[in-house]
Write a structure and sequence with these properties.
This protein has a single domain, classed as Rossmann fold (3-Layer(aba) Sandwich). Helix content is 28%, strand content 17%. It is built from four helices and six strands; from the N terminus they run H-E-E-H-E-E-E-E-H-H. The protein has a four-stranded parallel β-sheet with strand order 3-2-5-6, covered by helices on one side. The protein has a two-stranded parallel sheet with strand order 1-4. Helix 2 links the parallel strand 2 and strand 3. It is elongated and about 55 Å long. Keywords: DNA replication, DNA-directed DNA polymerase, Nucleotidyltransferase, Transferase. It comes from Vibrio fortis.
Length: 132
């Protein structure tokens, strides 16, 4: 950490700690968070579906015979904390997939870019149909 950052932290009254033996943490991994058994689709996106986007998201779910209660949302920055072995589908909307996933995977632009764009909706539908 730079000297300037350390000075800012000190001025804000934030105690700064430094590991004396960081090598002791080598290989340490936190336990992954298990998704609920009801989760059949995990949406990974920087944009959480709300309002009209939530309605569009629900229509897509219905097209693959899932209910809104069977879906979960996670921000891409939090994805590495989750065990991805249980959901049937993982949908990356507006972000890249950088993990090895055994589930059916969908890749699309942000939901806001799909809503009202027939070409993007068709491309998403073609991905869904490729798994049937």
């Amino acid at each position: 950490m730079s000297q300037i950052h350390a000075q800012y932290l000190q001025e804000m009254g934030i105690t700064q700690w430094e590991l004396s033996h960081p090598e002791r943490l080598a290989g340490y991994q936190t336990e992954l968070v298990k998704l609920p058994e009801t989760c059949q689709l995990l949406l990974v996106s920087p944009e959480k579906p709300q309002g009209a986007l939530a309605e569009m998201f629900e229509r897509v779910l219905k097209s693959i015979k899932l209910e809104l209660s069977q879906a979960q949302y996670v921000h891409p920055s939090e994805l590495s904390h989750f065990d991805l072995s249980s959901p049937q589908w993982v949908w990356f909307a507006g972000c890249e997939s950088d993990t090895d996933i055994t589930a059916k995977m969908l890749q699309s632009p942000l939901l806001s870019q799909i809503d009202g764009n027939n070409q993007q909706r068709r491309a998403l539908w073609q991905q869904i149909c490729s798994y049937e």
